[in-house]
């Protein structure tokens, strides 16, 4: 099972790379059904689609719901390279997804155990099993590299002459 999760995480990282190519923070996500078959995938499209809710998880949940023909993703697992934010955790709860496996922890905005724990909040109508830190080094390195690059680009831009 864990080996399969690592494989899915590696695939989610290739989706994250597609987000980076479109100028977005590299986050990728896949939804698998009870048999482990991928039924939905997504990556950040906030920049590409000018969409404030275009996070990898939301895109993957929507794709899975479309392919399964139901909003209710009970029994499915979401695998995502970064700990979900509050918005995505809310979407996950509303999708009734059973398990969430994520890579890097997000101490700044994570809502699956870091800052908040929306996915296991007893006050909500649904809770998901959460497994964090899968392929943690690889997933956090992918994000760190992108931010390093992005900061470099921005610092060059700030030095550009004002025309
Ligand atoms: Zn999010």
Compact description:
With 163 residues, the protein is α/β, with parallel strands linked by helices. It is built from four helices and five strands.
Keywords:
163 residues; alpha/beta; 5-stranded mixed beta sheet; 4 helices; 41% helix; binds zinc ion
Describe this structure in words.
The protein is 41% helix and 16% strand. By secondary structure, the protein is α/β, with parallel strands linked by helices. A five-stranded mixed sheet has the order 2-1-3-4-5. The chain has helices at residues 2-21, 56-68, 86-95, 136-159, and strands at residues 28-32, 38-43, 77-82, 99-104, 129-131. The N and C termini lie far apart (57 Å). The chain has four helices and five strands, in the order αββαβαββα. The relative contact order is 0.14. The mean pLDDT is 93. The chain binds zinc ion. Zinc ion (ZN) binds next to helix 3.
